[in-house]
Amino acid sequence: MGFGDWLKKRFGKQACGFCGKEVGMMSRDKIKGDVFLCHDCRHGCSSFIRVSRYTKDELLGHMEYMKRQGKLAELLSEQKGYRVPSAANQGVIFYDDAGMFRIYDTDKDRKYTMEMIRYDQVAKYEPYLLEEGGEDGKEKTFKEGGVKITLVGAQTDLSRMPKGLRAHPYIDQEITVRLSKDNMTYAENIIHHFDGIFGVNSDTKGLFSFGPTTQQKREGEALKAMGGMFKDAIKAAKTGEVSEDAKAKVQDAMNKVDDAATMGLSKYSRLADEAEAKI
């Protein structure tokens, strides 16, 4: 390839490998296999992935996935979610009845397909705080605050993670959600809600609590349900028939065991499965 050809390929217009439109270097991204992706087609991908990591075929599959995500987000928008207040253009909407949440961005939402993230795909969440100043004896001042959410990636060793988690098919990097330029209250609200979902502190008692903890109640319900299931199993062995009621008890017992093993997360996994089955 001559220098002129190199310049043309590097700086001249190139055809998008997806729609065929010719675009300049400021309106495209390069992906694996020396294929170009125009920004219009890029908006059919998740705003949280690096498209340069994928081949054309992989991105085509991802775009189909995002179409389903858009339908799912539209479906859930009809439900009442918990939109955590924010003082910035980004924030989080929790849909507890569907076991999912959405990170909104008032700038990107006009361009990109909306997508949902399952609670059981979250590996870690934590607040972040940026400060400025502090030099020459000056007091540091608040610059920016929010939350960082890390999803379970395809390469994550799930044996080292809490039970009940599953890998996100595409997003595996840390997502930064900017919430405020003057305080951490909004971030604390999101952390508090995540703590409730993942059963943080559900195995501890409050200062004036004397009964069993939330986790102890889950474990007790699981043992009780298992006992009832075994009684029905013995009865079925004698009669040779398994009633619908007995089948329902088996499923209920399995659900309660899963809930106890995952500090309550499995309940949200079942709700997410039900929501995804509707699209």
Structural overview:
The chain is α+β, with helices and mostly antiparallel strands. It has helices spanning 3-11, 39-42, 56-76, 185-197, 214-239, 244-261, 265-276, and strands spanning 14-15, 22-23, 28-31, 35-38, 82-83, 90-95, 100-105, 117-118, 122-132, 141-151, 174-180. The protein has a 4-stranded antiparallel sheet. Helix 5 runs antiparallel to helix 6 (244-261). It starts with a helix and ends with a helix.
Low-confidence stretches: none
The rough form would be described as globular
Helix content: 25-40%
DSSP summary, beta strand count: 11
**Count of runs of 4 or more consecutive helical residues:** 7
Report how far apart the termini are. 48 Å
The radius of gyration over CA amounts to 24 Å
Sheet-strand content, in percent, reads 15-25%
* Global structural class: alpha+beta
Order of the strands making up the biggest sheet: 5-6-7-8
Overall average residue pLDDT: 86
Could you describe the largest sheet, including whether it forms a barrel? 4 strands, antiparallel
**What is the H-and-E element order?**
HEEEEHHEEEEEEEHHHH
Furnish the topology, listing elements before pairings.
Blueprint: H1 3-11, E1 14-15, E2 22-23, E3 28-31, E4 35-38, H2 39-42, H3 56-76, E5 82-83, E6 90-95, E7 100-105, E8 117-118, E9 122-132, E10 141-151, E11 174-180, H4 185-197, H5 214-239, H6 244-261, H7 265-276
Antiparallel strand pairs: 1-2, 3-4, 5-6, 6-7, 7-8, 9-10, 10-11
